[in-house]
Design a protein that fits this description.
Layout: E1 7-11, H1 12-16, H2 27-44, E2 62-67, E3 80-84, H3 89-100, E4 105-108, H4 112-120, E5 124-126
Parallel strand pairs: 1-2, 1-4, 2-3, 4-5
Length: 134
Amino acid sequence: MTGPAPLLLVDGANVVGSVPDGWWRDRQGAAARLRDLLVPLAASGLPAAGGTPAWATGVPLDIVLVTEGAARGVPPVAGVRIEEAPGSGDDLIAGLAAAAAPRHCLVVTADRELRARVHAAGAACVGPRTVRPR
């Protein structure tokens, strides 16, 4: 692969909220657990699965986990950057997706409105199960 690694933007609130495992009792802890699940993907990319673009499979990824509200304060680790939204996480994700062009950008979210916004900016989308199986 030449050029920058594809950008994987993860809607932390949406992905964490996709599994009812008690995340609401410790939002920051839930975001840290999600961050840790993302680490291996930085080197290996996403698995080839339905809906995942070929350019994001089996290749190193530049991963950004977007946190907001009570989930802020999670430190970054090697392979996963953290962006803390001062307000709406969706607004930050849409802005990051727009700024990424013409680089490949994949947003992980199930939020329909956010999906429409990032598609308009040229990004692709996949659902939470892509990075967090149930």
